[in-house]
């Protein structure tokens, strides 16, 4: 079974786990569709505000005062409902508004009018120990940087260390991209509605949300599911069914062959990490393909992993004559950019599958078209695993589009290249040319250690070699990589990470 989720939807005690991620625009469309279907918009706001009040009482029972900060839109509307509910429960609730009250309209105005609590301008708020801030200033409608005086106020509250419960999103965090717009609250807890937004999962947004609670406010779940589009939170439910199952009729070649290219004589460690990771991920045979000058360095370090001498393009052509050699890793520690390019292109033209990492990515700086043409196919045969620096190097125009977040950038790169792109980091995004995308959030900080990227490239190849489709293989490998790091614990070396792959796989596979 999939592992338990950190995110839960609560409906009258019922707990619903969901991987749905909706950008604010998609959420607004769902909202509008629900209202068009006959559900009054104000009812949604009532349930949202009541859920916030319930969470405030449950999570911060020790509060002296609940300080509800309300913005000019529907996020503020949720705040007025929450304040009313808290006061009705006998709690001390005080209201502060950030804009002129005459700007309120629609459901937010109704919520304000039904609240019957005095509302004061935000600058009159005097912080006191024991205050709990309910942040209902901006949510999905944040459209620009915060005004400087509001940013200052938020920073002062943060500096005072008062606990913050955010409504939908911490104000200042862009729900679509996770970017901070001038300043942002750092919440202990965030209550959101129906589905996660990219800003809850992408950095820095994720670090500002605290724990995220997803509340069902009565929009039919089928509407949420129908709108989910192609963006998901990465978790085993997405790819578990694609993972290979042990089959008594298998032989080692049927369980997949992975070839990893080595670097030069003094740079063979990276390829050995990739090769070992491919083997640990279940590939039946793994081979290192090395330039002649590196063979002597590799011989003492390889046992179950085979070694082939592939010195030049002619050797590679012979190697590709063997139809069992289907899946390749090129880049970790490779060095020679010209040869990296010619090898990668030859693999592409030979209709094979390639995981291109590290130096293999950098080698195609300014030459993305050649790579795309060599791997052009109906289904992607190329997986690219750039970290931020490599992504900027290969896709400078996409990287410079400041209005776009990591999901859009990864999708654009995948579309441009016709490849699966795994844009690494603490919030790795995996995207396919058809727009499918997943955000990963299980990687512990200690995964950022030398060689862990080499391990990931090998894991992806190891799964692809076992016929897991490349997008599913990439999502699975990224998730298992994070799980393995958690099992290995901190501090961790890339070798420790390798050791933990088996247990990580066992923890999510059924057999
Ligand atoms: N989805 C659901 O199911 C439900 C969602 N609900 C709730 O609705 C929320 C979304 O409401 P929303 O669309 O009214 O947007 P919201 O975040 O209140 O902000 C818009 C206001 O802020 C202003 N503004 C923006 N940026 C600004 C800036 N930097 N500096 C200054 N002003 C700025 C903007 O002004 P404008 O850009 O128009 O000038 C406008 O006045 C959502 O987060 C959730 O809490 C529930 O009630 C019901 C069910
Ligand atoms: N702060 C972080 N928290 C969690 N995981 C991280 C963090 N930074 C990087 N990672 C992950 O660690 C791995 C590092 O890969 P890479 O940068 O290629 O390192 P190397 O080249 O040393 O192998 C990637 O899988 C990346 O997603
Ligand atoms: K908010």
TrEMBL record:
The residue ranges of the YjeF N-terminal domain are 27-225
* The UniProt record lists the keyword Cell inner membrane: no
Where are the annotated coiled coils located? none
Q: Write out the catalysed reaction.
A: (6R)-NADHX = (6S)-NADHX; (6S)-NADHX + ADP = AMP + phosphate + NADH + H(+); (6S)-NADPHX + ADP = AMP + phosphate + NADPH + H(+); (6R)-NADPHX = (6S)-NADPHX
Residues involved in AMP binding: 424-428, 453
**Cofactor(s) the record lists:** Mg(2+); K(+)
Cited InterPro entries = Carbohydrate_kinase_pred_CS (IPR017953), CARKD (IPR000631), Nnr (IPR030677), Ribokinase-like (IPR029056), YjeF_N_dom (IPR004443), YjeF_N_dom_sf (IPR036652)
The residues listed in the UniProt record as binding K(+), with positions renumbered to this chain, are 75, 135, 171
Q: How is the cofactor bound?
A: Binds 1 potassium ion per subunit.
EC numbers for this chain: 4.2.1.136, 5.1.99.6
Domain of life, per UniProt, equals: Bacteria
Function, as annotated, reads: Catalyzes the dehydration of the S-form of NAD(P)HX at the expense of ADP, which is converted to AMP. Together with NAD(P)HX epimerase, which catalyzes the epimerization of the S- and R-forms, the enzyme allows the repair of both epimers of NAD(P)HX, a damaged form of NAD(P)H that is a result of enzymatic or heat-dependent hydration.
Stated family: Belongs to the NnrD/CARKD family. Belongs to the NnrE/AIBP family.
Q: How does it assemble?
A: Homotetramer.
What HAMAP family does this protein map onto? NADHX_dehydratase, NADHX_epimerase
Q: Which NCBIfam families match?
A: yjeF_cterm, yjeF_nterm
What is the protein name stated in its UniProt record?
Bifunctional NAD(P)H-hydrate repair enzyme
Organism, per UniProt? Answer: Peteryoungia desertarenae
Gene expressing this chain: nnrE
């Amino acid at each position: 079974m999939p592992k338990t989720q950190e995110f839960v939807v609560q409906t009258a005690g019922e707990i619903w786990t969901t991987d749905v991620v909706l950008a604010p625009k998609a959420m607004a469309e769902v909202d509008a569709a629900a209202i068009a279907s006959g559900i009054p918009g104000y009812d949604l706001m009532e349930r949202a505000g009541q859920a916030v009040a319930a969470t405030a009482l449950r999570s911060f029972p020790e509060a002296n005062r609940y300080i509800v900060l309300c913005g000019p839109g529907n996020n503020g509307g949720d705040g007025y409902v929450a304040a009313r509910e808290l006061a009705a429960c006998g709690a001390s609730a005080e209201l502060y508004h950030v804009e002129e009250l005459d700007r309120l309209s629609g459901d937010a105005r109704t919520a304000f009018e039904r609240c019957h609590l005095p509302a004061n301008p935000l600058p009159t708020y005097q912080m006191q120990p024991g205050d709990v801030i309910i942040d209902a200033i901006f949510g999905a409608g944040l459209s620009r940087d915060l005004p400087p005086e509001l940013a200052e106020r938020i920073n002062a509250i943060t500096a005072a260390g008062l606990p913050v419960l955010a409504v939908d999103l911490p104000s200042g965090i862009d729900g679509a991209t996770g970017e901070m717009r001038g300043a942002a609250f750092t919440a202990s807890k965030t209550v959101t509605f129906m589905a996660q937004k990219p800003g809850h999962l992408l950095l820095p947004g994720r670090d500002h949300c605290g724990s995220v609670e997803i509340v069902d406010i009565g929009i039919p779940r089928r509407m949420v599911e129908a709108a989910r589009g192609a963006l998901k939170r990465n978790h085993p439910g997405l790819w578990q069914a694609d993972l290979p199952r042990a089959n008594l009729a298998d032989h080692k070649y049927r369980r997949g062959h992975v070839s990893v290219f080595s670097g030069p004589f003094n740079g063979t460690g990276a390829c050995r990490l990739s090769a070992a990771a491919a083997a640990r991920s279940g590939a039946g045979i793994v081979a290192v393909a090395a330039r002649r000058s590196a063979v002597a360095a590799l011989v003492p370090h390889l046992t179950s992993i085979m070694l082939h001498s592939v010195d030049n393009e002619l050797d590679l052509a012979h190697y590709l004559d063997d139809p069992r050699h289907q899946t390749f890793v090129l880049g970790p520690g490779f060095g020679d950019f010209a040869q990296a390019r010619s090898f990668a292109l030859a693999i592409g033209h030979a209709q094979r599958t390639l995981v291109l990492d590290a130096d293999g990515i950098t080698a195609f700086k300014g030459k993305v078209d050649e790579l795309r043409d060599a791997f052009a196919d109906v289904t992607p045969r190329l997986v690219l695993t750039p970290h931020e620096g490599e992504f900027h190097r290969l896709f400078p125009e996409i990287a410079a589009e400041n209005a776009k977040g990591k999901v859009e950038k990864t999708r654009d790169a995948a579309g441009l290249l016709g490849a699966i792109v795994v844009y690494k980091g603490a919030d790795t995004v995996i995207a396919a040319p058809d727009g499918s995308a997943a955000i990963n959030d299980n990687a512990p900080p200690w995964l950022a250690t030398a060689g862990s990227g080499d391990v990931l490239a090998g894991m992806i190849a190891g799964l692809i070699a076992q016929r897991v489709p490349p997008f599913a293989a990439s999502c699975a490998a990224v998730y298992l990589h994070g799980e393995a790091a958690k099992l290995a614990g901190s501090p961790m070396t890339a070798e420790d990470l390798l050791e933990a792959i088996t247990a990580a796989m066992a923890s999510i596979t059924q057999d």
